[in-house]
Design brief:
Blueprint (H helix, E strand, L loop, with lengths): L15 H8 L2 H12 L6 E11 L6 E10 L4 E4 L6 H13 L1
Length: about 100
């Protein structure tokens, strides 16, 4: 079994470990959400990284990178995507056409 170890210099926010650690900070998470969504969030009241939600009927579960609730009861599910921008842009253009 090979152990893959990364140095801090090799990590970036696409790395699951680093993304979870950075987003676990309420203030950083709040600022990231505000910047991405162009909204104002008064307060993050609960934040979970790597949250698993079990589906009892089907027997499968879902793991969320970051699950956040704000003081207004809004739930945010933040997922890191590693697609190239061109691929993402094509998907967005396709969605707009539908």
């Amino acid at each position: 079994m090979n152990d893959i170890k990364k140095t801090i210099r090799e990590l970036n926010l696409e790395d699951d470990f680093l993304f979870s650690k950075v987003m676990a900070d309420n203030e950083i998470c709040k600022r990231v959400l505000e910047q991405i969504l162009n909204i104002s969030i008064e307060k993050v009241v609960s934040l979970y990284t790597q949250r698993t939600i079990d589906m009892l009927l089907e027997g499968k579960g879902v793991r969320l990178d970051v699950y956040v609730n704000d003081n207004k009861g809004t739930v945010y599910n933040v997922e890191m995507q590693r697609a190239k921008i061109r691929t993402w842009q094509k998907e967005q253009d396709t969605i707009k056409e539908i």
